[in-house]
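Folding problem:
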Amino acid sequence: MMLDTLHTLEVLRRKGFVSRWGTGAVLVVVVGWLAHTVVTSPNLDWVVIGQYFFSTPVMEGVGTTLVLTFATLGIGLVLGAVLAMMRQARNPVAVAAASAYIWFFRGVPLVVQIVFWFNLALLFPTLGFAPTNAVITPFLAAMLGLGLHEAAYLAEVIRGGFLAVPRGQVDAALTIGMTPAQATRAIVLPQSVRVILPALGNQFILILKGTSLVSVIGGGDLMTRAQQIYGQNYQVIALLLVATGWYLVLVSLAGVGQRFLERWAAS
């Protein structure tokens, strides 16, 4: 119904019946009405939201979410850089191996990968001399699923940064006696960082939100904690709003950090 109303307003505006300011006013009224309806709903207990927003289980979930996010970013950067260099190599075997990795881990949904690592004991009951379930904890399964998946995306981000540097600059560095490693460190990396950082910031935010998928295996993240709480008190919407509030806070802080990094790289 609301979409039909907005469509009708847009048609009228184009025909000159409704001004730009008139359309904006109507949108403000509609959004305000929706917000008032949600806030004043008798089915939404704001006391519960305030009670659990800074509760110990929720804060532990926030901490686990941040640990998973940074661990995933670290794994993705290290493995992604290796894959990017393999894609740039002149060795066809290395190129094929890196391409196959990227194709596979980008093609399989993240939640499938997380569940696979969590159930690895069904395929390999033991790892060495220890039971697989004792080694692959829910947290480790989540980190493996997130990290290996993210490496495939960051490999392309890093490779794009490498490709943004003109090949002639590298050839000139090699001509004056630099080794390939020195040319990469002195010529390629400083310039490619400026291309990589904006995309890296976006990937960080995607990782942060993607950690919510860990809840399917009870990985202890923010969403897992919210589910555990509303599984006991049945305040589903209230706890989902608690989780939503924390995700918005974390994403907003990440966005501020991304802007500072971009300014630093551009200076």
